[in-house]
Amino acid sequence: MNTDNNSQKSPLTNKVLDKLQSGQIKMHPKKYFILKTALIVLSVIIVAFFTLYLISFIIFAMRASGAWYLPNFGFYGLKAFLAFLPWLLILMAAALIIVLEILVKHFSFAYRRPIFYSALGIIIITLSGSLVIDKTRFHSNLFRGAQEGSLPVAGKIYRGFGMAKCRDAHRGAVSKITNDGFLIETRRSETLTVIITPDTRFPFAADIKENDNVIIFGKRDNGTIQAFGVRKINDDLNIVPRRRIQMRLDK
Amino acid sequence: MVQSGQIEPFEILIKRYEEKMKRYARKFLFGYEDAEDLAQEVFLKSYINIKSFDVSKKFSPWLYRIAHNEFINAIKKKGREPLSFFNSDVLFPQLVSKEKADGEINKRELRQRLDRCLNELSSKYREPLVLYYFEELSYKEIADVLRVPIATVGIRLQRGKKIMKSLLPKK
Question: What is the pTM of this model?
């Protein structure tokens, strides 16, 4: 009977069934597939968090140096802004976005649509998430930790990028108003003299008062800056000049 | 039942899809002498991975996906035809006419034409044409098999038909 059945089967069916019955071929258990999917989801979450962290760090570093505000000062500002962009970090963020794109392409909601849509979705989500993180004191607290020496691993990176000097942007707090401008104290605890001329631009016209946080766009000559543009800024990055940190640590 | 490890119900599946898999292998792997062995491999792989199949969905696209992977690997191994690592037609949204039912006569004619120029079509266009005209899968099912956007399936079918037209007058 069995021989009759076998003779009715095609050679392909016989070969497949022989292999299955001999036990050479084993089914993967359900948990194997659950684990595989969980691994992809976990990878998506980890890469997404790392991307958010990196992009928000880039924004923080740009804000801390003052370069973030340079496009407000017209074409020259934009040129200086582009020149200062941390391209290595941006390339790393782009690579992470590509990895994220490859990972989400495992799911039908992503691969059924053109890459343009899923990539745009990822970019919008990561950028808006990074801007939300930027509104918190997450990076500035880590930066403070790095300055105080209590951030062992990332401390060097924070000190490096957080204190990066943009050639034409000078960030600081107004310490004194003078006849032809004002003095500012920078994050590096330097006191710089800012000279205002009739050509100086004030993109967001505001009265400059003592203790105001400002960005000065202009060439520095020793301790003096001939201001091409001045902008008052309201972001609170909680960055304390190096001298005050040192004084606090000395106590 | 197959997912619980029983072999008999799997035999029914083999019987139901054997001819389809052999045909898909023969048409897509045109000129590959081991096309039928690969069809056998598809059933073994599907048995190994059967627990990943979502029973609420249709079985055939899932099986064709396994077959697609198997056949693509065979093409890569043999290195007889180039496979592009990246296709630009999956990048941007494209305007493509929606899936419409070709008349039976039209379909038969296209199948005959396709049969005559299979070896001259690149795998990029040959596969969706085979899946659509011989295996009668929908755009969405083909998109799931190839893991490309639905619009890309439409574009590849359109371009594939155009290439076919340009090839046939020479014959």
Answer: 0.81
- How far lies A157's CA from each of A48, A64, A89, A93, in Å? 20, 14, 11, 16
Q: Which of A112, A116, A117, A118 to mutate to test the interface with B (most CBs of B within 10 A)?
A: A112
Three-class DSSP labels, chain B: CHHHCCCHHHHHHHHHHHHHHHHHHHHHCCCCCCHHHHHHHHHHHHHHCHHHCCCCCCHHHHHHHHHHHHHHHHHHHHCCCCCCCCCHHHCCCCCCCCCCCCCHHHHHHHHHHHHHHHHHCCHHHHHHHHHHHHCCCCHHHHHHHHCCCHHHHHHHHHHHHHHHHHHHHHC
Contact yes or no for A12 and B152 at CB 8 A: no
- Are the Cβ atoms of B147 and A111 closer than 8 angstroms? yes
Q: Between A105, A111, A114, which is nearest B93 by CB?
A: A114
CA dihedral B116→B119→B122→B128, nearest 10 degrees, is 50
* Inter-chain touch B43–A16, beta carbons under 8 Å: yes
Shortest distance, CA A4 to any CA of chain B (angstroms): 16
Q: Note whether B22 and A3 are within 8 A (CB).
A: no
Q: Which two tokens stand for residue B18?
A: 């054997």
Give DSSP secondary structure letters for A120-136: HHHHHHHHHHHHHHHHT
Residues in contact with A126: Cβ distance below 8 Å, sequence separation at least 6, in sequence order: A48, A51, A52, A55, A97, A100
The list of chain B residues with pLDDT below 50 reads 171
Work out whether the CA dihedral A151, A155, A159, A161 comes out positive or negative: negative
Q: What is the DSSP pairing of strand A224-226 with strand A220-221?
A: antiparallel
- Pick from A7-11, A188-192, B98-102 the range whose average pLDDT is largest: A188-192
Query: What's the pLDDT score for residue A3?
Result: 47
pLDDT > 90: what percent of chain A? 44
pLDDT band at A53 (very low <50, low <70, confident <90, very high): very high
Question: Which one-letter DSSP state was computed for residue A206?
Answer: -
Q: Which residue of A has its CA nearest to B10?
A: A17
